[in-house]
Structure formats: structure tokens, C-alpha cells
Design a protein that fits this description.
single chain, alpha/beta, Spore Coat Polysaccharide Biosynthesis Protein SpsA, Chain A
């Protein structure tokens, strides 16, 4: 059993893979020689796979999981953790935004101070525009206001997990593996490590696109809170109360001559559009929860491994 399993989800990362692997191996050489690096790869259209296999030819500790189709980063991460044999597993992206040099401190906190979960927490988010930072901030705020467990802000999947934590995570059968929330759900002794996040090495995201981040965030809200359903009821009650109040106000204004107005088709049309928009929004939220129930009931696999290299 290796001491450390490093799980790296990858997809079309030929531009950063060599630099990432060089930095990662240099760090690991100063930490422990007893490790494995598991690349969990969605089928890529560039040279990512051949570069990983070439690296493995010189180091058998490098392993590869290749999926039958693109399942996405959360599934790739989950597959890597499921195949990790180490006494601890460390998840890190290949884009060098998460510095491999932090691994030494993360390992020390796990091995010497007994923390079973070590999560780097971003102090800064270089390379991200104001809109993305604002969405990230509001997303974490909303999740932590509504979720049943507290998810640390400004964190990603970059983390070290003791084998016991990985074991408990693998017992969870949810179709959507929101690792940040599920790690908080299983608990254990946790330490946050502040760091400054760097821009992507090649400037382009493969997994963590803007829409992908929104999707992952929405999955987190739906998976860990029923607050949106409750908000639908509150919003419906508020709109009904507003309609009743408006009707009474219009009647009184007409009777006492406080205001001379005519209720025309324009007013009616605007009101209908408003109510219809509210109804469709609520139906969309309800549909998201029903869709989640539908997906969970099918029990389809999170991923399908087409090829596994280096696993006996």
C-alpha cells in the first residue's frame, strides 16, 4: 500500500501536462518515494494520453484510467478515488492553478498532526474576472445559508483525504459526486490551509469552464438543501398576498377617488407575464429535484472505465 495516492482528473491537457508532472514529481521526491499518480482521463482529442503513457514507461507509479466517454470532472475524480490504494489520497487539477508545492504541508498536517482532511483555501483568485469571483462568492454564501452541512468557502476539489475518509465517501451512492459537499457530509478532523491561487498555465479551462462551474454549484445546492423547494412556497404565498393587497388597494382607490386610472390590457399583460415567469421558474426548480430523484433511482454508474493501465 503506497503512502500517497495522487488523483489527477485530466481532459485535453497536453499544454500543461509536462510542466505539471515535472513540478508534482519534484515535490513528491522531497516528501515520499512511496506514492502513485492516478490520471483519470476523459477521452481526449490531443496527445494527453500518449504523454501519460510515455511518462509511465519511465515510472511505473504513474497509472491511467481512461473512460469510455466523457463523464466530466466530478466523475473522473470519483473514479480516481475509488482506485486509490494509498493511506491517503490527494486530489489536484492539472492546470497548475493549485500549486503542487503545497502538498508537503498538506502531508505534514495529515501525518504529523492527525488531520484526516486537509483542504487548501484560496486567499486570492488570480486569472478570474470580477463576474466569476462574484458568482463564486454568492454561490458559496447561498449554499452555506441553505445546506445541511457547512462547506468551506473558496475551496475546490484540491484536498488530501485520509484512507478512512475515502472509504466512507465510497459508501455514498449519489449519482452526482459533489466532492466538496460530500467531504463535509462525512466529517472527520479537518484543516484549512490558505494559499494564493494562480492563473491557469495555458489560460484556458477544459473542465472548469464558466458554465461547468455553474452546473457544479447548482448540483451542490440541489444535493445538499431542500431550501429552493421551500422558497417556491414562500414566493407563491408572497405573490398571492401581493395580488390580494393590490386588488384591495385598487378597489379602495376607485371608490374614494384617490387615483384615477383604468386597468387596461397592458397592465393585465404585464401581470400575466410576471406570474407566468414565476410559475415557470418554480416549475424549473421542482423539475431539478424531480430529475435528481429520477437519476438516482436508475442507479446508473458514475463512470465506465474503458482502459486501466498500471492496476493489478
Amino acid at each position: 500500500m503506497p503512502e500517497l495516492s495522487v488523483v489527477v482528473p485530466v481532459y485535453n491537457e497536453e499544454n500543461t501536462l509536462a510542466a505539471f508532472l515535472a513540478r508534482l514529481r519534484a515535490v513528491l521526491a522531497g516528501v515520499t518515494e512511496d506514492y502513485e499518480i492516478i490520471f483519470a482521463m476523459d477521452p481526449s482529442s490531443d496527445n494527453t494520453e500518449s504523454m501519460i503513457l510515455a511518462a509511465r514507461a519511465g515510472d511505473a507509479r504513474i497509472k491511467l484510467l481512461r473512460f469510455s466517454r466523457r463523464f466530466g470532472q466530478p466523475a473522473a475524480t470519483w473514479a480516481g478515488l475509488a482506485h486509490a490504494a494509498g493511506r491517503a489520497a490527494l486530489v489536484i487539477d492539472c492546470d497548475l492553478q493549485d500549486p503542487p508545492e503545497l502538498i508537503a504541508e498538506m502531508r505534514r498536517l495529515w501525518k504529523d498532526e492527525g488531520y484526516q482532511v486537509v483542504i487548501p483555501q484560496r486567499r486570492s483568485r488570480e486569472g478570474e474576472n470580477f463576474i466569476k469571483r462574484a458568482i463564486a462568492y454568492s454561490g458559496y454564501w447561498f449554499i452555506n445559508k441553505t445546506a445541511t452541512v457547512e462547506i468551506p468557502r473558496n475551496t475546490g476539489d484540491f484536498r488530501l483525504l485520509d484512507a478512512r475518509v475515502v472509504e466512507e465517501l465510497m459508501k455514498l451512492n449519489e449519482s452526482h459526486g459533489f466532492l466538496r459537499g460530500l467531504t463535509a457530509l462525512v466529517g472527520f478532523k479537518t484543516k484549512l490551509v490558505p494559499f494564493d491561487r494562480q492563473p491557469r498555465a495555458d489560460g484556458r479551462g477544459k473542465y472548469n469552464s464558466f458554465t461547468g462551474s455553474l452546473t457544479i454549484g447548482f448540483n451542490g445546492v440541489v444535493a445538499f438543501s431542500g431550501s429552493l423547494l421551500r422558497m417556491m412556497g414562500v414566493a407563491g404565498f408572497a405573490m398571492a398576498a401581493l395580488a390580494v393587497f393590490s386588488a384591495i388597494a385598487m378597489i379602495l382607490a376607485k371608490l374614494f377617488g384617490w387615483m384615477d386610472f383604468a386597468v387596461g390590457l397592458t397592465t393585465l399583460g404585464v401581470l400575466m407575464l410576471f406570474l407566468t415567469g414565476c410559475q415557470l421558474t418554480c416549475m424549473g426548480v421542482l423539475g431539478a429535484y424531480i430529475g435528481r430523484i429520477y437519476e438516482e433511482s436508475k442507479r446508473r454508474p458514475k463512470y465506465i472505465v474503458e482502459r486501466a493501465v498500471g492496476f493489478d
